[in-house]
Design goal:
It is a single chain. With 309 residues, the protein is α/β, with parallel strands linked by helices. Helices cover 34% and strands 28% of the residues. It has a 6-stranded mixed β-sheet with strand order 6-7-8-3-9-10, sandwiched between helices. The longest helix is centred in the middle third of the chain and has 16 residues, at 168-183. The structure holds adenosine-5'-triphosphate.
Length: 309
Amino acid sequence: MSPSYTIETSHLRKEYSRKVAVADLDLQVGQGEVFGFLGPNGAGKTTSIKMLLGLAKPTSGEARLLGQPIGDPQSRSRVGFLPEHFRFHDWLNGAEFLNLHARLYGLAESARQQRVPALLKRVGLEEHANKKLRGYSKGMLQRIGLAQALLNRPAVVFLDEPTSGLDPIGRILVRDVIRELRAEGTTVFLNSHLLSEVEITCDRVVFIKQGAVIKTITLKEIEQGATPVQIRIGAAKIDRATLALGLGQFGTEARVDSDCIHLTVADQQKLPDLVRWLIGQGLDLYELKPQRVSLEEMFLQIVGMDGGL
Ligand code: ATP
């Protein structure tokens, strides 16, 4: 195993008395990577996170977090975690709750005085700082949970379904926080079933099924693959056959209808040149829609409709 990875596992396995929750997990996550951990219900995602955090003991295999064997107190102090099913201290108010966790992380009072209000503001709960958590909605609890996960300026953050209770504004907040974390060089380990979110936030995803990795994809690969494109054009007097011939330099399967061009480009990098060329042909462009395969479609292709349960 290499100490240069933020997270690394080798043949990691967890068996409960009658159930193999994680069969054979091999992962490598680099520093500053936003890493999506995807798989159907029961695939072993939460169990894997629990093992990485030292909350569940592996049956066999190895894992390292921040260069240390899992469970090491030094590396655990540099980790942030937003669990999927959280039970917070609902008799505390938002500020008290964050202060308590900041003390548990060992933050000095001066640091707490600066960090707690800043995080309350960052997650949009500034005005609810003095409200007891028992009066918070599910989304508000998820927001305070996110703030709690960031208190110690972690080197790696585990977010287990961070947007499940959030409204669209909350989801944008989580997306922005993840982008900020990436810019600061923080590693983000994201487990989410909201694949449209994953698609726009993650650098790389793995698909797991029955506790083993079945496929790894870099999100750039999705953008770089062959992409069917539809271009809506004005009803200009054009020679469709000549136009289709000219389109051949940008891709294949060119077809021109009365107000629409259909073309498959080998690479989306070609799109700006294609647009310039079409305008040069005297066409008016109203819309250009790349129809790339979504992560959701990939999930179904890779994992299968049965999900493996
Ligand atoms: P989901 O997407 O539904 O949250 P998951 O991928 O996080 O699922 P896990 O919660 O890790 O899946 O569960 C993996 C398997 O291990 C499931 O079949 C689950 O029933 C089983 N399992 C998890 N925890 C335990 C436990 N404490 N005792 C027995 N079996 C367990």
